[in-house]
Specification:
By secondary structure, the chain is α/β, with parallel strands linked by helices. A four-stranded parallel beta sheet has the order 6-5-7-8. It has a three-stranded antiparallel beta sheet with strand order 10-11-13. A two-stranded antiparallel ribbon has the order 1-4. A hairpin with a 5-residue loop joins strand 10 and strand 11. The chain contains 15 helices and 13 strands. Helices cover 37% and strands 13% of the residues.
């Protein structure tokens, strides 16, 4: 039996950041794929994406797929900025605690609730002052919350109850921003002023794109939220009161301590599990990490908020409309075979030998695999999907021709 406790203690010194879902990784699924989004997003060059086995390759501990191909993260070089996790087009990189999707969503919940309660208390206090004949109080600021990187959190004295502190703002994506807006915050600070002087400055572009996408989504959904990316009034509103504790920023030492404790607990549990297994005792499986947790939370938030109408076109960051030109389609259904999220899948045969596909926009990550796979350019994805189609209970059915050789293919034979 391996010494799991010793392994956990070693990993606690440089804990892994993410696990790889090989079934979703484009380079694992398709050796011809050129996807390197995770490596391109990494601001410190800690990721190597391999297309095949390399003799004498260095060991990378965080992500080490069983298959030959795929990304490898150098734990020694990794700064835990989260850029690779957010940049992955298929959500194949699954963050591990304490920065896993569930943990981040819980922090956002708490920040939104605190912002709402603080605004309500200030409104009540202002109302009480006005009722006794005092001058009108200063206008109450809308419920304000936000995100801050460790560096900024160390420089400013922020209210820890309303600020989600992260190793880097690259962890912030559309789902977290919209969730904060739907959970009570009408004013959301995502300060990027400190980014130009940071070694991780390249990650700021990911955050700007997420903020822009969130603005578009909230506009379509009618969600009253303002997103601010510059330091200023929004951060001053998030300063801790003189008598209160400032935010307990998530320092790297603290992060490693949290993860290390989690690894030790896991190792002890696994040791007990193996002993029980040897004794033929029943053992319950731990729940695996679930992909798309943030995605489903985003859709739940928007469904609860309601959109501008069933005919409203949703931003492509949510999902595109996928369509197939049957005149150009060869009927091979390779697009469905290679779809990493099963948003497009083959469900059977139709009369005449034709193939029936199914497209579920809610599962689509707009990774572009289906378009790239089609050799005839018969498949397109466009920003024309409506809210009704996105939230439809039944996926869209698409009928494609029986497998055939198209004339242009014959001419090349």
């Amino acid at each position: 039996m391996p010494d799991l406790i010793a392994i956990a203690e070693r990993l606690a010194e440089r804990p892994p950041m993410a696990a790889l879902d090989g079934g979703r990784c484009l380079r694992v699924r398709d050796r011809e794929s050129s996807c390197a989004a995770c490596a391109e997003a990494c601001p410190v060059g800690a990721i190597v994406v391999r297309a095949a086995a390399v003799e004498g390759a260095a060991f990378y501990g965080s992500v080490d797929a069983v298959r030959d191909a795929g990304p490898r993260i150098d734990d020694e070089a990794c700064v835990r900025c989260g850029a690779c996790v957010v940049a992955c087009p298929t959500n194949a990189l699954l963050a591990l605690p304490p920065l896993d999707d569930g943990g981040l969503i819980a922090q956002v919940d708490a920040a939104g609730t605190a912002a709402r309660e603080r605004a309500a208390a200030e409104t009540a206090a202002a109302g009480a002052s006005n009722s006794v004949g005092e001058e009108a109080a200063t206008p109450i600021e809308p419920p304000t919350a936000g995100f801050a990187c460790e560096r900024l959190a160390q420089a400013l004295r922020l209210d820890g109850s309303r600020v989600v502190v992260l190793p880097c703002l690259a962890w912030v994506d559309v789902a977290l921003l919209v969730h904060l807006a739907c959970n009570g915050a009408e004013r959301i600070a995502v300060p990027l002023d400190a980014c130009p002087s940071c070694e991780l400055t390249d990650a700021a572009e990911l955050v700007r794109a997420a903020v822009d996408g969130s603005r578009r989504i909230c506009a379509v959904a009618g969600i009253d939220a303002t997103f601010e990316t510059a330091d200023g009034a929004s951060l001053r509103d998030l300063e801790a009161a003189p008598e209160a504790d400032a935010t307990g920023e998530l320092s790297r030492r603290g992060l490693f301590a949290q993860v290390g404790a989690s690894l030790l607990d896991t190792a002890r549990a696994e040791t007990a599990r193996q002993l029980q297994s040897l004794a033929d005792a029943p053992v319950g499986d731990d729940a695996p990490i679930k992909p798309d947790t943030r995605r489903w939370q985003l859709l739940d938030d928007l469904h609860a908020a309601g959109l501008a109408g069933d005919d409203a076109v949703v931003p492509r960051v949510l999902a595109p409309r996928m369509s197939i030109d049957v005149e150009r389609c060869s009927g091979c259904a390779q697009c469905a075979l290679f779809c990493p999220t099963e948003a497009l899948r083959r469900i059977g045969r139709a009369p005449g030998g034709r193939t029936l596909l199914e497209f579920d926009p809610a599962r689509c990550r707009d990774c572009g695999v289906c378009e790239a796979t089609c050799r005839y350019g018969a498949l397109t994805c466009e920003e024309t999907l409506t809210a009704a189609e996105l939230f439809a209970l039944d996926p869209q059915e698409i009928l494609i021709p029986k497998r055939r050789v198209l004339p242009e293919r014959q001419s090349n034979a």
